[in-house]
Amino acid sequence: MKPVLHSGSSSNGFSHRRVEKEAGMNNAQPSAGTTENGWEAGSVDTPSHKLLVYFTTCNIGHQVEVHLKNGSVYSGIFHAADVEKDFGIILKMACLMRDSRGTKSRSPLVSKPPSKILIIPADEVVQVIAKDLPVSSHNGSDSVQCEKPLELLTDSLISQFYNVDLERELKPWVPDEDVPDCSDLENVFDDPWKRGWNQFEVNKSLFGVTSTFDEELYTTKLERGPGTRELEEQALRIAREIVGENTRDLHVAEERGLQLSGKFDIDEETKYSSVCTANRFDDTCYEDEDEEEDILLDCCNNLTFGDSSASDGKKPASTGMVYEETWGDSLHLRNNKIVDQSWSNSNKHSHQLMSEQPSKDFPVAGNKIRNESQLGEQRKSKFLGSSLYKKPSEESVSGLEDAPPSEKPSFTDGRVGLLSDRAKSESSSGWPGSSISRNSENYAASSASNRPILSPSSSIGSLSSEKSTLNPNAKEFKLNPNAKSFKPSSPSAKSPQSPVPDGSFYYPPVPPMPGLRIRYGMGGAFPGQQHPMMYNNTTQLSPNQTYYSPNSPQYPQQMMITQQRPVLFMPPTPYQPEMPYNGRDSY
Amino acid sequence: MDPAGGASVASDIGGEGEKFAVGNIYSVKVITGDEFRGIVMAYDPIPNFVFFEEGTKPRPGHSKNARMVNANFITGLSYLGKTEDPLDTDNFSVDLNGLRAKEALAIRQAEADAERMGVGVTAEAQSIFDALSKTLPVQWENSDILVMKEVRVRSPYLSDCVFGGTDAANNRVKKVLELERRRLQLFGT
User: Helix crossing, A381-390 with A456-465: angle to 10°?
Assistant: First the structure.
């Protein structure tokens, strides 16, 4: 390092000898312009000295403040210090921050320009303060450290905003005293019905507008009566269980506060991007969408069948039935394989499963289920029949259920319909919240030991139509004359769904296609991708039916299904704005 | 060098090595009245300077607030304790080139900053200059602000102190000046 020999303005007028610092332990390099005494390298080469030299060297180039004996403070760029002698300091571009009289200013006094070079003799120096001095032992990365500030250009830096601290002191807002206390509006985040605010009334009084709004036009009728409270409790219980469910979907898990992925380094882009990266595309997408779908189905099923399955799934006392577990897991279903298994299992035990219906699950089954039965009816009528038949066979159920034979469940069409609904088929009609809650009312009342009537029921129906590996003891399918006939509509992919589908469900007798599964365009982890639509022999689909989860945004289904052929549809573009998302904000 | 001048108090030649042993924590008061607490990082009796890391807990690897204190001017010293070696390794290497580059950069920035500083102008003038410089090219000319090399704003930098330049430029500068003054009033209280 070449020493700085020229003298600029010095604090008291005499130039001072200084020697450039030398780095590290190697003091053998004499600096070019040494002092009169020369650099006596090694003369004071004690470890403490070396240490001091090291630290002092770290200061080079750093903005430091030098306090002088007379109280003045200079700020400048540290250039050199005479470590050999008495530590005279050289600063470059030094400004007087505070003069000896003690007057202080945040910015340098503007009375005179900064000195290009300032030499301070040692006996004036009281202390030298360097803020954020990098003294890392691994100073080989110094260049990196130096570069870093260049990269981190904040707006304030760029605009050289010097007035950053000229801000008002913030005070919390207090309402005026004469403003009436609108406590009604304070709890805006409460549920709307708790707020005591009736917009319709207000509109009427303010504008004379009479509303013709009738909630029941848009949703299924909520029965309010003596049993309301019970039903509400059931609904809450189911809701709680759903929310507490395990899930594989990243987004749902995040909402529920579950730590899903073991990899903590998934950045936000991966998590929340709607772009499906290549590797995700192949397997995970499908998988996830399956899971999504399964989750949705499970939720739907849960809602309809009460959370008996959920709760049961958690209870070891639940039947040792395989389906039980699978259904308990179906709430946690992650891939269709399991579902298939469950299906097959349930197929075997279909009748038994049917019999497991907890009677209490359907205390009010009658009319309430009726509402669902709109959906149910659209199910294959044969389901209804079969389910009806299942009921009496309770007792005949062999060892599969450990559950006490439930009281005669009030088996209704609706119930069956629901059961069939559980078959992965998406009950096309949306599940309006109220109706769902009602369903849960129906089923939530089930005792803990209730066996969930799981999708197998639907599979029962479906299976009954097929011979092969079905349960030979299953009851025959009996046609339900009340079921609406199925009218397949053209597979218009994007028809918006009404809450109650017009067409009845139709269960096409598609031979089982190995490895094919029907997927819904639920798209959760499959953003922008259209689900390939595949048939599963145990599920039923209506081309225009969509599953509407109560919470997710309603998107028209992209369903392209032909009767006898599985259709694999891969959209050419990666982004499909209509793909419904599960657990994601709509976009 | 003269270790114990009249003004020095704390230097005690006898136990100086132990006194400022690396790792010791002290509360230090200097002659200027400044006080701080720090951990000794280095000490050399020859120049009699102590290198402190501010704070009472060592943070190896972090950048530190460092103070190099002239031991002659320490007026109060109280021993607070000791920590283990605050330096994590003994691998001391300094990238001289990096430091030089850092210094050069700092100097360049400081010079640029100096350009923006008016000499002998009031703080208000300086803030007006800064505000104008955000959107207009300005430079100091003695105590005048020269905008776009044409329009001159003289002390006391009011709207009627704007001279020169084309009409459009003049008006523009006037307007900006007014608004900036208003803004400064708002924030500057």
Answer: 110
What is the rounded distance in angstroms from the CA atom of residue A4 to the CA atom of residue B100? 13
CB contact (8 A) between residue A135 and residue B66: yes
Give A333: exposed, middle or buried? Use CB within 10 Å, 0-12, 13-18, 19+.
buried
Q: Using CA of residue A248, residue A251, residue A255, residue A257, what is the dihedral sign?
A: positive
Its sign, for the CA torsion A8, A10, A15, A18, is negative
Q: Given CB atoms, is B137 within the 8 Å cutoff of chain A?
A: no
d(CA B143, CA A212): 75
| Domain extent for B46 | 16-91
Chain segment A522-573, per-residue pLDDT in tens: 444 444 444 444 444 444 444 444 444 444 444 444 444 444 554 445 544 5
pLDDT-derived band of residue B44, with 50, 70 and 90 as boundaries?
Answer: confident
Q: Is the same domain home to B137 and B85?
A: no
Q: Tell me, yes or no, whether B106 lies in a domain.
A: no
ipTM for this model: 0.77
Mind listing the domains of chain A with CATH numbers? 46-101+112-131 (2.30.30.100)
Distances, alpha carbon A9 to alpha carbons A14, A112, B113, B117, in Å: 9, 12, 19, 19
Tokens coding A417: 């319909």
Question: Does residue A48 sit in helix, strand or coil?
Answer: helix
Contact B98 A92 (CB under 8 A): no
Residues of B in contact with A44 (CB under 8 A): 44, 46
CA A574 to the chain's CA centroid:
21
Find out whether A462 and A423 touch, Cβ atoms under 8 Å. yes
Residue B82: strand pairing partners: B24
Q: How far apart (Å, rounded) are the C-alpha atoms in residues A519 and A294?
A: 9
> What residue type is A8 in one-letter code?
G
Domain count, chain B: 2
Q: Which two structure tokens, joined as six digits, stand for A211?
A: 């509303």
What is the torsional sign of CA B140, B144, B145, B149?
A: negative
Give yes or no: residues B82 and B124 share one domain. no
Task: Tell if the CB–CB gap between B66 and A54 is shorter than 8 Å.
Answer: no
Each residue of B69-125: pLDDT tens digit? 888 888 888 888 887 765 655 666 777 888 888 888 888 888 888 888 777 778 888
φ, ψ of residue B144 to 5 degrees: the values are -100, 150
